[in-house]
Specification:
This protein is elongated. A four-stranded antiparallel beta sheet has the order 4-3-5-6, covered by helices on one side. The protein has one domain. With 82 residues, the protein is an alpha+beta fold. The chain has one helix and six strands. It is 17% helix and 48% strand.
């Protein structure tokens, strides 16, 4: 897994061909819906997630997934409305 970024005590290693996907889930639904296309920028994916969460009042959950070659998707952040 390359490259590795180090800032003090925190080290983050990302895989090759990393993509970030934002998705939302409506209240009462079981399945998630993708928000936009996959992007190589984590910041863009978080902005898409936050915008969809703020604009649609019936969205219960929103999160960002990171996908890379040969690895399962990893959830990086999540918003939950109570």
């Amino acid at each position: 897994m390359t490259p590795c970024y180090s800032s003090g005590a925190l080290t983050v290693c990302t895989g090759s061909n990393v993509r970030y996907r934002a998705r939302t889930r409506w209240h009462g639904y079981r399945r998630y819906e993708w928000v936009g296309k996959g992007t190589r920028s984590y910041r863009v994916a978080v902005m898409r997630m936050a915008k969809a969460f703020a604009e649609q009042r019936l969205v219960k959950r929103a999160d960002v997934l990171m996908t890379a070659d040969y690895y399962d998707p990893v959830q990086l952040c999540e918003l939950v409305r109570r």
